[in-house]
Amino acid sequence: MNETIVFPSPNWFQVSGIAVSSDGWLIYGGPSKSICVLQPLNSSNNGSGNQSYQAHVVTRGHSEKIACVDISPDWPKNKFFITGSVDGSVKQWSLQSVEHAQNDVIIKSTHSLDVHQNEKEVVAGIGYSNESCVISVGVFGNIVKWDLKSNVAKTNNKFLRKFKPSCMACSPHVPFQVAVGTKQGVVFVIDLSGQGNVVYKIRAQDDDIATLSWCPQYEVLLKRSFKESIKKSNEVEKLKIKDEINPNDSGVGKNLPDDSFDESIVQEDDTFDIYKDHEPDEFGHKKFKPQDILVKVVKEKEPNDFLAECMKLKEDILKIKNESEQSVDNLVEALDKTHVDSDEDSSDTSQDDNDKPQHYKGKPRYNKAKVWDNEDLHGESSAHVQKHLLATIGSKYGSVKIWSKSGKMVACSVVASNIVNKKAKGPNCFTLLWYKPNVLLIADGKSQLVQCNPLIINWKKKIQWSVVHTLHKRGLYAIATNAPRLQSPDKSGDESSDCPPDQWRVWTAGQDRNLICYNMVTNKKVGVYNTCGGFIYTVQSCPYDAKSVAMSVGDGAVRIWEADTSEDDTKLTLGQVTSFWQNVQGKVLTLCWHPTKENLLAFATGESRVGLIDAGGKTERPARTLATALRGGIYSMCWGHEFDLYVAGGGQLVRYCVDKPDKDPVTMTVEFEGQKWSLSAVSWHSRGMLCGSDSGGVALLEPYSRELVTAAFVFSKMIHSMEWHPQQTSGSSEESPYKDLIAVSSLDKSFDIVIVEYVDKGDGLKLHKWKSLNGHTNAVLQLVWNPHKDALLLSTSHDSSIRVWDVLAGTCIAIFGRHVQSSLGATWSALPQLSSTVLSGGADCCLRVWRVEDYPPETYTEVKHEIIPKKLKKKKVKKDEENEEAPKETDLPLAAQVAARVDKKFKAPKQFLLATLHKSLTNCSALCLRKMAERLIQSEDFQQNQTNNSEKTSTKTTDEFETIEVLKPEDIKSDTDDPEAKDEEFEVNEVKETEDVYVEYWKVFGNTNDLNEMFEFEMQRHVEQGRLDSCIMLSIFRGHIDAMIQFASQRNALCPFLVSLSPCVSFKYWKDVTQLYLAQIERMVATGQRHRIGENKSYGGSVYRRAALMLSLHDLRGAVTVLVDADLFPEAYMLAKARHVDALAEEVLHAWKVDCFRNGRIEALAMCYLALGNLYKAATTLVKSNKQEFLTVAAELAKALGQDTFATHIEDKKSLIVSETPEQDPDEDLKPLPSKIDLMKHSIEIDGEDSESED
C-alpha cells in the first residue's frame, strides 16, 4: 500500500502542461522544476468508488519550470513522454518498473534536445507527430523536427520569421503537419514533410492565440440553419400577435346616458329641415337618425372584503402547516436535481450522438444539456462535409473560431458575458479542447467549464453554449482528457485504443489547487484531488477526531484532510481536503491541534507569524493572527495548560494566552548553571515541559510553574525534536511502562536518535541517556511515538527515508523511501484498527499513506529518478581573455557606453599586509585559545560578572586548567605548504613566506602594547623579506604618515599615490612632500634610473589602495568597511584597534564571527567568541569539533563557568572519540618512499638484466 492523497500542484497558467494517457496515467509539470507522474491504482484495493493514485516525482527534471507535456502515441506499449521547459530544453522520458517492488517506477531521460536552449528561447509547444517523431517550436520562431530513432533534429526558421509563437498542436490525421498560434493572432498550418511548406496562414484572432485543438475526426458533417430557431420564432410571433389585438375585445359595452352631452348645445330648428317631407324609402339623401353609442369601459370589480381575505389567508396557512415536512434527504435530492451534476437521464440523450447532435443555449444552465433533434431546426437547413477542422481561441477575449482544411472560417463565437463568473478573481485564462467531434470544451477564462457542439451552427455561423460544471473556485486554466486523439466516424474511438467511451474522463486544473476528474457521459464528477505547491513540513492527526489530519504546507496554506475508511475499516481512502489560506500569508512550517478545544488549530510560518484556525464548519474561515514576538522561521510550537501556546523560534521562547487576545505574549528564558540558553524546540507534557537549546541541551521544566527541574546535554548541535512517550496507549488499559522515555533528535552530524529516560538513580529525578538509534544518513527531523503500541518510534530525515524503530530492541523494523527527497513530516493514523498505518509528507509535495508491514528494511531500495545537477558557478576567465574579448569603452560610441557591472568579487591578497598572522590563523591552535581564555578569566570585568551571578555558579581560576597536549609552534605547518593545494586567483600576486614563522596571534586581541608588538613584528618581517610595498601600507594603517614618507624617500619609492596621501597631515606638509618627490625624480634621472619614474606599484591592489585613500580623508569607518567586504577581518580589526575605536573593532569581530560560521571554521569562530568575552559560546562552539585538544579546552571553559553538566558531556564525547580511534602499531609503520635517484638506479639495473638476457 502506497497511496498518495495530496499531489504536487501543476504549474499555473500552463495550458499545455497536463497530459492524460489512455489508461489513466496523469503527467504534468509540478512545482518549481519538478515532473509529476500519477499512476492509477486498482480501485478494488481502495475499497471505494474513487480512483486512487500513486505519485512519482522528479524533483529537478529541468533547470526551469515545465511549460508543456505530451504523451507518446505508442502508450502503453512503450511508456514514453516528452517535456519542454522554460530553459529551452526538451527531453523524452521513460517509465521503467522496479524489480521486486509493486507499483514503483523509475523515471529516466532517454533523449534530450538542446536546440532551443542554445538559442535561449522558451519552448512554446511540443508534440508527438508519430511514435518516432517529435515537433517542437520556440518563442523565437524555430520549429524543430526531431527524429527519435536516429536522434537527429532538423531546424526550420523560415516559416514564422518575425512572428512569435505562443502555442502549437500536431495534427492527429496528417503526419508532420502542425498548427502554430502566434502572439500576433496569426495561425500557421505547416507541413514539415520534406523541405516543408505552409499549408495556409490566416489571421485567426485579434489577440494572442491561447490554444489550438484539432478535431479528433478527420471528416465531419456540419449542419447550418437558414432561419432562426423555433423558440426564437415563436417568441417573435407572440409579440406580433400581441400588437394586433382588437381593442373591442376588451372591456364591457354600455349605452351612454341622456345627460352625457352638454346641454349648452343648440338644438336643430325644423324650419330649415330639408328632409322633413321626404319619405323613408325615397331615393336620395336621407335624414340622419340618432342611435345609441356603445362605449367599452373597464369591468368594474366589486371591492374585496378584508375579512374574507384574512379567512382565505388563514386557510392557506393551515393547509401548508398540515403538509408533511420534507426530510434532509429529500432536500438534498431536490438540490441534486437542480445541480449541474444531476444524475437524471434525459430521454433525448439516449440517442446516438452522430444521429442527433447536441446544441446548447447561450444561458448558463445547471441541468443536463438538451439534445437537439433535426425537427428543432426551424425552416430549411443545409449539411456540409468539412475536413480537418481546427479550433482556436484568443487569450484576451475568449473568441472561438473553427477553421476548415482550406483555411476558411466555418464557425465563430465568444463565450457569453453572462456565463462568466464575475466573483472569480485573477487573470483570464482561456483554453479549449476538442473532446469529441460534436463536443468542444472551453475554459471560460474564470472558473467554469463550458461545452458546445461545433457541428451545428445557426444562420449567423454562431455556436451556442452550455455550462458543464463550476466546481473550481478560482481560475480554471488547463483541460486534458484520456479520449483518443484520432476517432473514427463509425466508432466512438480509435481502434488501437483500449479505453471504451464510457471510461473517457476530462481533467481540469484551477488556481484553487484542485484537479477535478469529470465524467461527460453521466455529467458527474469522478473525483476532486487536492494539490499543493510547496513542501509538506508537518503532518499531525487530530487528538479527538481520528479521521482529521492537518498539514502545514509551504505554499501559504493549511490543509485538513477528512479521511474516509473502506467498508471493512482496514484502509484509509480519499476523502475531502480543505484548504485554509486566508490571513495565513506565508510558508507554514509547523502546526498543532488543541488537545481539548475542538477544531482549534494553531500554526506558525517562516515569517514569524503565529495564528489560529477554526477548522469547524464546511466553509473556509479566515485565520486569526496573533501578535508577532519572534524573528525568523518558527519550527516548533505546542499547546500547554488550557489555552497556553508555546512557540520557539530565533533562539527565543514565548507564551501566548489564546483566551486573552489583548494580552501581549510573554518571553520565557531558561537559565542553567548561570548561563541563558538559546532555545530551538519546545514540547509540553503533563509530566514536564521540554526545552531544547541550540547547543544540544535539553531542559525539563515544571509544566505549570515553568521552573527549571533538571537539564542535560544530549547533543552538540541544535535540538530539532523532542517527544514524550505516550502515558497510555490505545492497546492497553494501564499506564505504559515506558512513559518516562523521551526521544530526542538534532542536527548533529552523527545523525543519531537518543532516547533519554527521566528517572531517579539515587541523585534525584534527572535526564539520563538510555539508548541511541543510528541508521539515518542525514539529519533527523521529526519524531513520533506510536499511540497504539508501546516503544514504537517513527522518524523522518533529510536522507528521504522514514524509519520505524523498535526502541526496546534498538533496531529498525521498516524503511519507507518513496519521497525521493527530504521526508519532513509524518504521523501515525489515530484509528486503533489502523495502528500500523503511517501518513507522511516531504519535499516532493506529496502526502502518502503506507503500512509498516509492506516495507521491511531488508527489501529497502532507494528509488532515485534521474535529475539534472544544480547549476555550477561560472568558471573564472583569465584577464588576458577578458581584455581580448571586451572592447574598450573609449572605442564605443557615446550611446553604447553603458554602466559597468561587477560580475565577481575580487579577492585581495590576505598575506600582503599580515603574512605571518594569517598563517598562524590558518592553523588555529588550542594553545592560543587557552591563553586567550586565561587572559579573559583574569580580567577584572570577567571576575565582576562572575561575582554578580548566582551563588550556585562557581568560578574557576586559571590554575585549575589542566595541561593540554597541543601542537608546538615548530610543528605547525601551513596549508599553503601543500604542493597539491590549489592557488587562489587574486587581483595581484600575494606575498609568499620563505620560511614558517609562528606568531602568538592571541596578542592581537590583547592590550595596546601587544597590538604594537604585532605591528612591529610584521614590519620587521616585511623589511627582512624586502617587501617595501607591504611595509609602507602597514605604516599608513598605523597612521605614521611622516615615517612612511621618509622611508619611501630614502629608497626612491615615492610615487603619485603616496604624494596624494600627504594632504591629510597639512597643506604645508603636502608642499614638502612634493619637493621630496621632485628631488627624487632629479636624482633618478641623474643616476640613470629614468625607467623607474613611471613605474606603477600596486600596493596590495585596489582594496588596500581604497582603504588608504579613505584613511587620508579621515573616513575610518569607510576604510574598515572596505576591508571587511574583502574578507580582510584581521586587517580591519587591527586598523580599528590601532585608531583606538573599540566599538568599531567589536563590529568587525561580529562580522568575522558570521563569516567563520558560514565557512564552518569552528576554531576561528571560538576565537571570535573569546575575543568578544563570551566563554560559554566559545565552549559550545568548540564542542562541535572532533579534535581532542579542542574538546579539552571546551571542557575546561565549561568548568571555569561552573557548567559541570556541560563539562561532563564534553568529557564523555572526548572519551567516545578516543575509544573509537584505532591505535597504530609501531611495527606496521609504512616504509619511506624511495627517492627519485633510487628509482633511476633500479630502472638501470632492470635494463642491464634485460640486455644480458638478450645476449
UniProtKB/TrEMBL annotation:
PANTHER family on file: GEM-ASSOCIATED PROTEIN 5
Name of the gene encoding the protein in the UniProt record: LOC112054357
Keyword terms, alphabetized: Repeat, WD repeat
Extent of Low complexity compositional bias: 943-952
Protein name as catalogued: Gem-associated protein 5
Domain of life of the organism encoding this protein: Eukaryota
Ranges where the record places region Disordered: 338-365, 940-984
Ranges of residues in domain Gem-associated protein 5 first beta-propeller: 54-355
Pfam short name (any one): Beta-prop_RIG_1st
InterPro entries in the record: Beta-prop_GEMI5_1st, Beta-prop_GEMI5_2nd, Gemin-5, Quinoprotein_ADH-like_sf, TPR_GEMI5, WD40/YVTN_repeat-like_dom_sf, WD40_repeat_CS, WD40_repeat_dom_sf
WD repeats: 59-103, 773-815
Ranges where the Gem-associated protein 5 second beta-propeller domain occurs: 543-842
SMART domains listed in its UniProt record: WD40 (SM00320)
Ranges of biased composition (kind: Basic and acidic residues): 953-976
Gem-associated protein 5 TPR domain span: 1003-1213
Compositionally biased intervals (Acidic residues): 342-352
